[in-house]
Design goal:
This protein is α/β, with parallel strands linked by helices. The chain has 16 helices and 17 strands. Helix content is 38%, strand content 19%. The N terminus and C terminus are likely disordered. The structure holds adenosine-5'-diphosphate and magnesium ion.
């Protein structure tokens, strides 16, 4: 049987394109000796969603903050499109990388529109242009215009998070860095935000690194998922299906959780299943003989199975599946809910009868896909072993000279980082608000930046 079911596998081969971020033996040890990340090798393909997932304290935030250079690696390096991040100016880098944190990290004393326009105003866009762009973004993240002049506290958690995404998108960055963006909202809103993000990504195709401690979120959103374990070690990286089907070790297996076999079926298209025929009648009164007989209506849509013992009566159909659009999970469910163990296939548009397939055939397909995945993993491992070459030394202090480093975009990150970590963030914001127009604002930001650095 030819297996094309594991289509998502392909993305891992597309890692040589433009805009790839590459972690090369990256390590981070904080000044107090805490080892947050160890020898991380990870390729982040462009225009895909890479999710980094792991338990609390395993080094996820540290990893993300090395990408926009809020933190520097202590060993190894990160390159973007082949260029080391260290040779790029921080301010330029951060304009190309939107940053989203939990609860949106919004400035409470600024309106929604002002929050969204944060980066454009740091870039000194004229007011009219800034407002126009902010209003466009407001609608593109699915928020009504009437929210524009509200303050963050007057929004729901989900709305705040959307504003946070809008703000990150304001300067049209190539990369979106998202640190536990959906952790603070309830499960129903989280589901909505997942759909929102996937929809947005279909439109914008950004290179996204999203961090979460929730494996289900990772599996749902990630084109590629990297699992970290405590101590900042990469446990495994792969497509969601690879992680479910071939966990590298007991830690990963435990982390991906129960039902992984069943959940893995959600990543396999049902379109490769070979459909068979079954006896079909339009009029249940005409059903006769042994074996399964499917009853369809005048439009050829299945309505149920004829009951051989009670002429004229029908059994419930169970669920159906559409080979064009559904996954093996839906197909298997269809077989399991069918009186005869036969999944009934229907056309996606009209719901017309298209054929049947047995539970056994579906499971045979699952086995074939598993074998193909295991082979693709071992092939990639061999290829990786062959191409690995020594990594050149990182040059120290290669921040480009020229214009003096600007602090404006640092401000945003520092404020957000501070606000997230301090308990008295309100107080911080109050100080910021007070000092926004004051001449000593720069000094304040510098102090904050220093404080954060000293911490690390
Ligand atoms: P995660 O985001 O996965 O919860 P972090 O990257 O925030 O993990 O932290 C990884 C490890 O580094 C943890 O042990 C944490 O306590 C430690 N850590 C984080 N920030 C600092 C810091 N500024 N100084 C010292 N240790 C830190
Ligand atoms: Mg974190």
């Amino acid at each position: 049987m030819v297996v094309k079911g594991a289509g998502r596998r392909k993305l891992l081969d597309e890692t040589c394109g433009v805009g790839v971020l590459e972690f090369e033996s990256v390590g981070k040890t904080y000044r107090d000796g805490t080892v947050a990340v160890v020898d991380l090798n990870l390729t982040v393909p462009s225009r895909k969603i890479t999710v980094i997932v792991g338990p609390s304290g395993c080094g996820k935030t540290t990893t993300l903050r090395m990408v926009n250079r809020m933190l520097e690696p202590t060993t190894g390096r990160i390159t973007w499109d082949g260029t080391p991040l260290r040779s790029k100016r921080k301010t330029t880098l951060r304009r190309q990388m939107g940053y989203v944190i939990q609860s949106g990290g919004l400035f409470p004393h600024r309106t929604v529109l002002e929050n969204i326009g944060t980066v454009p105003s740091l870039l000194h866009w004229p007011k009219a242009k800034r407002e126009k762009r902010s209003l466009e973004l407001l609608s593109s993240v699915g928020l009504e215009r009437k929210l524009a002049h509200r303050y963050p506290a007057q929004l729901s958690g989900g709305q705040q998070q959307r504003v946070g995404v809008a703000r990150a998108l304001a300067a049209d960055p190539l990369v979106l860095l998202m640190d536990e963006p959906f952790s603070a909202v309830d499960p129903v809103v989280r589901e909505e935000l997942h759909e929102f993000l996937l929809e947005l990504q279909r439109e914008l195709s950004k290179t996204i690194i999203l961090i979460t401690h929730d494996i289900d979120e990772a599996i749902k959103l990630g084109d590629q998922v990297a699992i970290l374990r405590i101590g900042g070690h990469l446990a495994q990286v792969g497509t969601p299906q690879q992680l479910l089907d071939e966990p590298a070790d007991a830690f990963v297996e435990g982390f991906v959780g129960r039902d992984r076999g069943f959940r893995s079926l959600s990543f396999q298209r049902a379109s490769e299943l070979r459909l068979e025929g079954v006896k079909v009648v339009r009029d249940v009164e005409t059903a006769s003989g042994s074996g399964p007989i499917l009853v369809v209506d005048g439009d050829a849509r299945p309505v149920g199975w004829a009951d051989p013992d009670r002429p004229g009566r029908i059994f419930a159909l169970g669920s159906t599946f559409s080979p064009e659009t559904d996954t093996l999970r839906v197909a298997l469910d269809s077989a399991l809910t069918s009186r005869y163990g036969l999944a009934v296939a229907v056309t996606a548009e009209a719901g017309r009868y298209a054929g049947v397939v047995s539970a056994d055939d579906i499971l045979a397909m699952v086995r074939d896909v598993r074998v193909a995945i295991a082979e693709s993993i071992s092939i990639r491992e061999i290829a990786a072993a062959q191409t690995s070459e020594p990594i050149p030394e990182v040059e120290e202090g290669d921040e480009p000279l020229g214009e003096p480093e600007q602090h404006d975009s640092d401000e945003l990150y520092d404020q957000m980082a501070e606000a997230e970590q301090t308990d008295d963030s309100d107080q911080l914001y109050d100080r910021l608000a007070e000092s926004e127009d004051a001449e000593d604002a720069d000094e304040l930001y510098d102090q904050m930046a220093d404080a954060e650095q000293a911490d690390h």
